[in-house]
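User: Fold this; C-alpha cells only.

Assistant: Input:
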Amino acid sequence: MGAGFLQANLAILPVEHALDFMRYCQRNAKPCPIVGVSETGDPMLSTLGSDIDVRTDVPAYNIYRDGVLDSSVNDISDLWREDFVTFAIGCSFTFEHALGRAGFKLWHVLENKVVPMYRTNIATRDAGPFGGDLVVTMRAFHPDKVDEARSISRRYPLAHGGPVFAGDPQEIGIADLGTPDWGDAPPDIENTIPVFWACGVTPQNAILRAKLPLTITHKPGHMLLTDVDEQAEIPVI
C-alpha cells in the first residue's frame, strides 16, 4: 500500500520525555530515522501531509501503560492529551516497493503477511530512560541477490537504509527464525541467506524499558502513510 510514498512508524509520548526520546533517536538513527515531529498537543502532522491526524489515521495502535502492552485499538481520540508529542519514524516497508520494482518476490507481501521482526543482542545507545537492544526485520534472498538488495535499500536512508547484518541469525542473538517477536513466522528459507534491517519497532522496545505511565505507538505492521515522496533525502520535521 502507498506505493511511492514514505511510510512511518509512530511513537506518542508526554512532552516531559520528548527531548530524551529525540536524543535516543538521534543516537540510533539507523533504526530510528525521524521523519516528522508534531507540535506539543497537536495531533496533526502537517509536515508529512495536508490532513494527517495521528488520532485516527493509523490502522492500529498499541497502548502501553508502565511499559506493558495494555491494549490495541483503531482510534486514540479518547486518549489524546494536550501534552502529547508525536514522532514519525521511517519504515522499511518504503524500500520494499523498490525491491518489488526490481523483481524481488517478498513472501510476506505476496501472502499478505507481516514481515518477521526479532530482538537482537545488538545494544543501542541510551538516552535518559530509553535504551535496549536493536530490533530487526528479516527478508531472505538467494545468495546472488543479497548485494542487489543491499544496494537498493541503501538509497532509502529515511527507511533504515541498507541492512545491518546478513547470515547466521545466531550471531546477532536470534535463536530461531521460526518464532519472531513480532510479525508472522517466515516459511522455510533453505538455500537462501537471511538479511536483517534495522527496524522501527526498536523505539517501541526502548519505550517498554522506560516504563512510562502512558505511551502510544503504531501496532507493528500497521504504518502511517504520508504524502512525502519515498525517495526524499532530507526530512522536514
